[in-house]
């Protein structure tokens, strides 16, 4: 991101002739390239940002924001005191922490493993197969999961029955205890391969002389992973970790909506984003849902700032 | 090449086993779903279908491909993917080209305006109310217009354009090309790789989107196939009913008692996945490049 500010500085230097308006008129052709796009950004990004203010109003569907009364922090208080607050917050934090603790290191581990493979054909196959799920929609992935876990010819039930682990097929997607495991496993399954691309590229950039020197000193391959490869890719890891921490309250949305269909799962599946969707879009309590969403956004920005502050002290940062 | 020690050999063997398992678990759901879609539904209900169909049939596809609503959903998906990707790439690249011009008045402010949107957004509800207020509900253009300009893609395009030799533009100018002419005749034709990469990601995003149609579209004739598939899967899991079919497909269904909701939904899933699987081998080199452009430029 740093190059943006560096590049834009020289623009102001050469003295131009004429007033701002005539200079602007003279470059109408390039302004015409950017202004329509900026207008789109204004409409579809900035108007909703202004719309967030309705979190402090009692939104009136017929009058719009202009005619809605201001109510201060009423909706925030309502959320904090609501019976769902505890469940929603617990699920959000637990699910996102699980996803972070397992989903974040998984692609790094995969990249490290792929790097040790010498057979190019095998490596190519594993990469090709593991990248694919990233390109599938969550609907398809959820369809796979439902099919695998189904009591009606679900492969997992078939396998477990063959191994005599269970007598009767289990309806995994209607048992709350299994939901978090299913969610995290599915997420890793979908993104592990694609996530490893960046780390593989970082590993490819490590100076091969270091490995040669380590070989000469008799360090094992296993040892080299920890003393050469991992420290070398640390800057990339840290940047992605900062971004992941900023997203800590994004526990998931499409995956939870699709996999947590069964109402018995509500107790373990409801997170902030799905709650906002349910309350806002389905129950049309616009102001209240916006307040809940804003609450999440504020905490996320805070987390991102803190993570970046810590990272900066260690020498890597986003900004 | 240094000979591996004893411990390293164990590690390499372990890695091969692990990666084989990973590749298998990734591939298996595709394979199994395809197998179920080619097996008679009544037979699948008996269980035990894993690697190979027991009673091979094309009936499931026969029913699904006779369902005019699903075909219409497929058509809507193709239409929005093609139109949406084309318009988004053209407008975003044009925007990016304008932003490479140093003499552009306000360039710094424009850039700040763009970057802010990468960190802050209005969230679901205000966007929903905006779309509703603009009258885009139940309109095909709700698929195209709100996501037309991608700031992220603009920055990638801009970086690419800035890397092109400056002499190109100068010679175009000497030959009498204006800025627009230079962009369409010189710059765009030279941007094949970046256009391919970003088109790929934009197209996949369009094809896979099921959520926005589910909140913005009530008219069944405008639903893309992914949203329809979601409804089919939901009917399956909640009440295990037969997938909602239109009358033509019901007629087909009456003739074939062997299909089940499970075999039908698997066949539908295969059809919705097919375009991705078909283009995947050809675009792999582009997306690896694309990920790196996107992330390392950070």
TrEMBL record, chain A:
Keyword Transmembrane attached: yes
Keywords tagged on the record: Membrane, Transmembrane, Transmembrane helix, Transport
Top-level taxonomic group: Bacteria
Membrane topology field: Multi-pass membrane protein
Transmembrane residue ranges: 32-56, 93-114, 135-158, 178-204, 225-249, 286-311
Domain ABC transmembrane type-1 positions: 89-307
GO cellular component terms, semicolon-separated: plasma membrane
Pfam families found in the cross-reference section: BPD_transp_1
Chief place of localization: membrane
Location of the protein in the cell: Cell membrane; Membrane
A GO BP annotation: transmembrane transport
Family statement drawn from the similarity comment of this UniProt entry: Belongs to the binding-protein-dependent transport system permease family.
Protein name as catalogued: Sugar ABC transporter permease
From TrEMBL, chain B:
Gene Ontology CC: one annotated term: plasma membrane
Cellular location(s): Cell membrane
Major location category of this protein: membrane
Taxonomic superkingdom: Bacteria
Every ABC transmembrane type-1 domain range: 74-283
Record carries keyword Transcription regulation: no
TM stretches of this protein: 12-31, 74-97, 109-134, 140-161, 182-204, 264-283
Membrane topology field: Multi-pass membrane protein
Keyword Membrane: yes
Biological process annotations from GO: transmembrane transport
Pfam family name, one: BPD_transp_1
Keyword list, A-Z: Cell membrane, Membrane, Transmembrane, Transmembrane helix, Transport
PANTHER family in UniProt: ABC TRANSPORTER PERMEASE PROTEIN MG189-RELATED-RELATED (PTHR43744), POLYGALACTURONAN_RHAMNOGALACTURONAN TRANSPORT SYSTEM PERMEASE PROTEIN YTCP (PTHR43744:SF9)
The family this protein is said to belong to: Belongs to the binding-protein-dependent transport system permease family.
Protein name as catalogued: Carbohydrate ABC transporter permease
Organism of this sequence: Paenibacillus lemnae
Taxonomic lineage: Bacteria, Bacillati, Bacillota, Bacilli, Bacillales
